[in-house]
What we know:
It is a single chain. With 110 residues, the protein is of the alpha+beta class. 12% of the residues lie in helices and 25% in strands. Strands 2-1-5-6 form a 4-stranded antiparallel β-sheet, with no helix packed on it. It has a two-stranded antiparallel ribbon with strand order 3-4. It starts with a strand and ends in a 13-residue tail after the last strand.
Amino acid sequence: PLAFIEFMPELKGHGAEANSNAMTDEQGKFKLMHGAEPGAVIATHRVVVNEGQPPAGARGQDAASQTKLTDYMNSLKNRPIPGRYGSYSTSNARVEIKGEDKKLVVKLTR
C-alpha cells in the first residue's frame, strides 16, 4: 500500500513518454495513468515499485520529522519494498497489457 508504481513498456523506439504510473491506495489497488489519460499502452511492461512520498510532517531532517517518518514507515504493510524492484535495470516484475485489462496483479517476492 501507498507505493509509487510505474509500468515501463518494453517497446523498441519508445522512451519514457510511453510509461504509465500510479500511487497505490491503502489496499494496494491502483489506477494507471498514461500522461493525462487513464490506462497504459498495449505491451509487456517492466514494473518498477518505490516508496510513495511520506506525509508532510515526516519529510524534514529534524529529529521530530525523522521520528514521524520512522513511525509512518513502520505502519505500512509489506515493507520494506525489495530494492530490486526500484529500478528498470533490476526489476524482474513484468505485466502484459493486452487491451482493456480491468484488473492487473503485480506480485513482488522477497
